[in-house]
Amino acid sequence: NVYYSKVKNQLKMGQDIGADASVLSDWMAARWIRLGYVQEIERKRITNFENIRLQFQDASYDPGRRASLPWRSGFTGVAWNKEELPEGLTSVSDLWDPSLSGKVGVMSAMRDTLGLIMLDAGVDIEGKDWGDAEFSNAVNTLRTQVSSGQVRSIKGNQYKEDLKSGKTIAAIARVGDVMQINAEAGDKWGFAIPEKGGVLWSDVVVIPIGSTHRSNAEDFINFYYDRSNAVKVAAATSFISPVDVRQPEIGTIPQELSRNLMIFPSEATFATTKTFRTLSQGEEQRYGAQYQTVLLAGA
């Protein structure tokens, strides 16, 4: 939303925003597409499109991937300090245990946090059979935990610093962030996809309406989709590549990475997660305003 607020007036006028391509959260990409702020991608230039995993080759907000292409993904679940909680965590409900009062961190990303809470309540966040009632229930669950002091704070990327400093010992977290702080400060934190399901989030690449170098962007995207390049990027960033990486490419990186199911997931691992469905414009406005009231209380 911060980036969007800076460029939306230029986008409305069809002007160049100074980016040949933009990598956005999938829900933000859906907004840009709905508002006509992107160019159609010339698919014949993306000759490596067939390398993309089938599950990423389509999107409800962009059927056939005519205006967006998958860039990277990751899992959101629960994290904990392994010294403080040697038994680990297996569910979102574990975070509400009284013994963790004041020691729980929560991400501010609405779809990650409320998506997990809804999954914990048995809601299929990917399906269309939920609406205002289910969303409100999740908001109220979080509001209760914030007002009671169970949740220490709701933060953006800064939630990682609270884990590192010990201010929190458990959190709703993205696995890539957990791997990052483990690399920076020692292997002190565990991560799990909750038993009732984790959230699969994705960023996608679009070409803004005013970009004058569409072909350059398309060539770069196609380069990225080459399997030999994709495996290197995934190994270096700890994000899930949209590319279906196989042998021999997977054999070019260390086994501790190639066997890490959080970076190179199996179909069984993907099956334990759900993607938060695309919201309508009205839902996006209502739910965003509703969630904001909890964010203000948890800041």
Characterization of this structure:
By secondary structure, this protein is α/β, with parallel strands linked by helices. It has two domains: 2-72 and 201-263, Periplasmic binding protein-like II (D-Maltodextrin-Binding Protein, domain 2, 3-Layer(aba) Sandwich), CATH 3.40.190; 75-200 and 276-298, D-Maltodextrin-Binding Protein, domain 2, CATH 3.40.190. 38% of the residues lie in helices and 15% in strands. It has eleven helices and eight strands. It has helices at residues 2-12, 26-35, 110-120, 132-147, 159-165, 175-185, 214-224, 227-237, 255-258, 267-270, 281-298; strands at residues 22-25, 69-81, 104-107, 151-155, 170-174, 189-192, 198-206, 273-274. Strands 1, 2, 3, 4, 5, 6, 7 and 8 form an eight-stranded mixed sheet that branches. The longest helix has 18 residues, at 281-298. The radius of gyration is 20 Å and the shape is globular. The two termini are 18 Å apart. The mean pLDDT is 95. One of its GO terms (biological process) is polyamine transport. One of its GO terms (cellular component) is periplasmic space.
